[in-house]
Amino acid sequence: MSASLFSPFWHRVATVKPRLRSHVEINRHIYRGDVWYVIQDDASGRYHRFTPQAYALIGLMDGQRDLDKIWHSAGDQLGDDMPSQDEVIQLLSQLYRVDLIQTDVIPDITEAAERRAKDRRTKMLAMVKSPLAVKIPLIDPEPFLNRTAGISRWLFNPFTGLIWLWCIGWALMQAGYHWDELTNNLADRVFATENLFLIWLVYPVVKLIHEFGHAYALKRWGGEVHEMGVMFLIFMPIPYVDASSSAAFRSKYPRMMVAAAGIAVEAFIAAVAMAVWVYSEPGLVRSLAFNTVLIAGVSTLLFNGNPLLRFDAYYVLADFLEIPNLASRGNRQVAYLCKRYLLGQEHEESPAYTRGEARWLLIYSITSFIYRIFITISIVLFVASELFFIGVLLAMLSLYNMFVKPLFNIIKYLFVDRNMVQKRGRSALVTVVVTGFVGVILFAIPVPRMTLAHGVFWAPESSRLMAGSNGFLEELKVSSGTEVQAGQPLLVSTNQELESQLNKTAGRIKELLVHYRTAVAGARQNEAGIIQEEIRQSRAELARALEEKRALVMNSPADGVFQLAMPVDPHSRYIPRGTLIGYLLQPGDYRVRAVVGQNEVAAVRNDLQGVTVKVSENLDDTIEASLVGEIPSAQKELPSAALSVDGGGQFALDPASQDRPEAFDPVFLFDIQVKNLPVSRIGERVYVRFEHTPEPIGFRIYRQIRRTLLRELEF
Prior knowledge:
The protein is of the alpha+beta class. Helix content is about 50%, strand content about 20%.
């Protein structure tokens, strides 16, 4: 309220007799326990929210009372809360600008035409500023929806809700059961040329049904839909309906249901498509079902189901919190805090009416801004990777809308706005201090820098116990993890074929000896020499067989701890020669083989200040280590499947490799020496931290941006 009730300009408007236009409706709403009045403009489709104090004035505008009489009548009704004359003039001006009232004064036709032309220019400018989401109205679907309004009654009722829940639950169980098949080689399947064409066909159909979900939800609770058209989202045509009439619903729950109807419909489509995919044979139908699941399931969660973007879930959240215009008011709340506490503008008022509302506005504004940056960059990079020139234009436009334009408005406010005339010195000081503070934080203060990597305990070659002979494992003499002594038997295998070969070779030698003696007795020297050579070969063969037989019993070569590298119960399993049986671990120095991605390898190679490791079984202890070696070139094969995403690691596996664990992108392997470490299980996960020279955050951000451009655009 102004300091004075009276205004020097009141005489100019005191005799005006305003009245609401015929196309205006007023609805009473409750937001966070407070009464508000929402004015619905059927002509423009806009909605305006006013306080009870403002409604006390608006409700008296019937064209019979002049503004002075309206003000006095409202004063009698409101008492100490009566508005000042300046506030009444401001309200009247606001109502006139949005075409909610008309007066007995002859309207200025030129001014009205200019306002309409300005509205058209604003809409065109909005299309230019947001080329990724251009709307083109086409038809009025209300007559069709009225003829089919009966559909809404059986679409939105408790029984249908139970069917919906059952279908979604069943589809989720099927997705979990067939998860490997659904996600196997996903990237190649989705981005294949023929599959992209199927997505282009399926996407608009799914979204058309989605929009009819909104439309019939509106009809179910008495709303109207007068606009339907096409929105080009990232250059893909997508149907849309104007469901803004739900704002007139008094209860928030019908409003939430209208906003969530599209998500619910798409989830049901995904469930039906999952059933088709499960029970159909490979072919076109199954491919269409798979893409429908992908579109109606995944894209719904990322976009329509994400309240940080101004799609369906945003309106559900705003109605649930009972905070209309959550996004725009959140931005105004941030601006208010900056003006009030940084620039000292004591007259500024918060757009929030309670502390709880203020917290929600601030949190939402910050989180949604960060997410919009992320999603915008992702879209721009995707488009630029396919259409470079268009992607660059989109990047420039996005940078202008998200950073350059707001920064220009801030500068304009600080140095041009009349409210800052008396505080130019403070605004300049705040600008310098904030800019300097941000610059120091980003580019002057070194922050600890490190590379975190996963690795596994890597046994030396000398500790590996390999099978010396083919055979079937008969008995494990010691269990894994047992301390053993040199010469102690570890396991026993059998090989019946080897036994037969030994008997056959021994018999052959005996037979050859008889033939040899006979040849010598008969003075057949040539024959005796040939038989003697055969005897020598047979004895060598017998010696090799005996060596293999002795190798069927594996003895410990030294003192240590035996660790089995085979399955827990390998009894009766056939073990070929050269198979890794286990390890003989001895206290002393052990190595860790760590895996580092392409983005971090330069820092590990060129700026290494220290290395520490933590064992997964005891994360509280940090162990000093040192880098002792590196595999010379990049490779894709991982030392262990435990380092893949499926095993809880960092690297996605290449689905094309089925025989061994290979990362999707090349990786680099480093060997780390760990001293004075108790004997641990070979293959156990280890967390490695490479320490680097501290560096300001700004240089890291620059390097990450440059790396991303090189990777995505080769630019």
